[in-house]
Specification:
This is Peptidase S8/S53 domain-containing protein. Helices cover 24% and strands 19% of the residues. It has 5 helices and 9 strands. The protein has a 7-stranded parallel β-sheet with strand order 2-3-1-4-5-6-7, with helices on both faces. Helix 4 links the parallel strand 4 (100-103) and strand 5.
Length: 232
């Protein structure tokens, strides 16, 4: 199962990621990397978000083939970066031939009305390639809680919007928007997701925790990858 994670890139020096990058026959899990921000070969993650997203995905889906696309540098994505996201999605479909695309970011909810991006959406890439098969697209809902609606592109038709829950399956109210009547509402672990910090040893683990729908998204994508592999 091929999965593209489009985010802030990846830090190949993080210890867990280093093990995934090693060429050990069938054990290699990160197959290709590319950037749509600056130089094509500069896919280094400078803020750590994309690396964590990839890590959470790989821990859920240990046999998937992962493809990394860098589409942003930091927390905010400027308007001039929107086109790069569309190009990355096109590349993931036409060149990497992925089954699943994971988008752990949300653009301002006005996007698509005042930026012209409605014509350039995660699903429009498939429409521009009519002979290709459909792909599964996951996107983070938003982290604004019930006071905000779903972000773009999570609110789009054809995209699976992922909300965050705690370890008991309860909605993380401070993170996820309210359910949308008449639409699918998916939720998975995204509150206080535990992981060992880089460099920690098994004898002295002090776990760190991350919360957000952006971390629930790769977990949902990983579950889908496992189910797809099982079905095949």
């Amino acid at each position: 199962v091929r999965v593209a994670i489009l985010d802030s890139g990846i830090n190949e020096r993080e210890s867990y990621i280093m093990r995934c990058l090693k060429l050990r026959g069938g054990d290699r899990r990160i197959f290709e990397t590319r950037s749509w921000v600056g130089k094509e070969t500069d896919w280094r993650d400078t803020n750590g978000h994309g690396t964590l997203v990839a890590r959470f995905f790989l821990e859920v889906a240990p046999r998937a083939h992962l493809y990394i696309g860098k589409v942003c540098e930091g927390k905010d994505i400027p308007k001039e970066g929107y086109h790069g996201i569309v190009q990355a999605i096109d590349h993931a479909i036409t060149e990497w031939d992925v089954d699943i695309i994971s988008l752990s970011f949300g653009i301002d909810t006005s996007a698509g009305t005042d930026t012209g991006t409605d014509a350039e959406t995660p699903t429009s890439a498939r429409h521009r390639q009519p002979n290709t098969r459909a792909r599964i697209v996951f996107a983070a809902a938003c982290n604004g809680g019930p006071l905000e609606r779903r972000a773009f592109p999570a609110r789009m038709s054809g995209v699976i919007c992922v909300n965050a829950s705690d370890g008991h399956g309860q909605k993380a109210n401070l993170l996820s928007p309210d359910p949308v009547a008449g639409e699918d509402n998916f939720i998975t672990l995204g509150a206080y997701v535990r992981y060992p910090p880089s460099g920690a040893t098994s004898s002295s683990l002090q776990y760190e925790y991350k919360s957000g729908t952006s971390f629930a998204t790769p977990i949902a994508a990983g579950l889908a990858a496992d189910l797809l592999e099982f079905a095949r």
